[in-house]
Amino acid sequence: MSGDVLSQNEIDALLSAITSGEMDADELKKEQSEKKVKVYDFKRALRFSKDQIRSLTRIHENFARLLTTFFSAQLRTYVQFNVASADQIPYEEFIRSIPKMTILNVFDVSPLNGRVLMEVNPNIAYAMMDRMMGGRGSSINKVENLTEIETKIMSSTFENAFDYFREAMEDLVDIEPSLEEFEVNPQFLQMVSPNETVVVISLNTTISDTSGMINICIPHVVLEPIIQKLSGHYWMQNEKKSPEPEVTKQLEKGVKKSIIPLCAQLGTSEISIQDFLMLDVGDVIEMNQTIEEPLLIKVGDIPKFYGQPGKVNKKLAVQILGALERGKEDDE
């Protein structure tokens, strides 16, 4: 009966014990009336609410989708990113939980204070690099002996990938991520004090036949200026917010004053490259459209109307006869 909710078997056992006299109901009431003490570990301070953790999880789910699209295009193989967990732990505990030799990318996220760490499992990092170099995406782990070329390829790849973190965070704050440090030994990396609370979002990563974890470590100091925006109340307000009527009117007024190109297409023709090279001033090109057929009128590059040519006050003009029905542009 360690949980708050009892199963049906536990309820039956409790009633049976009270009925048989094995358990005294008065003693049970006395235990419930006593004050319960909850153990609190000051070294493991919980500085984020569950609501804020859920908001961060939602943000990184979007980030995972963006990474899936980015790496699928870059590596041209099966790639999948999913959020596995989101926890708040001391920084020291996070460092102890990752491999002794791994891929560490430290990013500045100005204008926010502090830095964000992306830890990539070496198996994943080498599978990515192997695909980019034309291989099948096989993985080896020799992270302690990275060459300068391998270091450059990996750091450049993850810097481009982390740029999508800006898009994932744009509803909260506009940031400019930039790679500040690339390291392989976590013992040489001291971003914050050991007891500082950090949020660690773990991403399950699959590349072809290789799988592993990517961990995003965000210190509390980074999120502190925008922590109020992580509440569910803030997200609900943003969803309900709509443009003010005056702003809408100004936008409509601006759109109506926009200048768009309008052109009337007299016809089309196909000629050989040899005939094209021999064209000279005064030559006549025969169109594949008769003078009785209406002209195609385009707004920008999109066919919208059909009309007939003419003159107005001794100036060339086109009279619009009607709107082009949807699907007719494919027939022109």
From TrEMBL:
> Where does the record place the Flagellar motor switch protein FliN-like C-terminal domain?
260-322
- CDD domains listed in its UniProt record: FliM (cd17908)
The cross-references to Pfam families, in alphabetical order and at most eight, read: FliM (PF02154), FliMN_C (PF01052)
Task: State a GO cellular component annotated for this protein.
Answer: plasma membrane
Topology relative to the membrane, per the entry?
Peripheral membrane protein
Listed A to Z, the keywords are:
Bacterial flagellum, Cell membrane, Cell projection, Chemotaxis, Cilium, Flagellar rotation, Flagellum, Membrane
- Keyword Protein biosynthesis present in the record's keywords: the answer is no
Where does this chain mainly localize?
Answer: other
Q: Which Gene3D superfamilies match?
A: CheC-like (3.40.1550.10), SpoA-like (2.30.330.10)
Please provide, alphabetically and separated by semicolons, the GO molecular function terms listed in this UniProt record.
Answer: cytoskeletal motor activity
Where it sits in the cell: the answer is:
Bacterial flagellum basal body; Cell membrane
Q: Which GO terms describe its biological process?
A: bacterial-type flagellum-dependent swarming motility; positive chemotaxis
Q: Which NCBIfam families match?
A: fliM_switch (TIGR01397)
The family this protein is said to belong to: Belongs to the FliM family.
Q: Spell out the protein name for this chain.
A: Flagellar motor switch protein FliM
What does UniProt list as this organism's lineage?
A: Bacteria, Bacillati, Bacillota, Bacilli, Bacillales
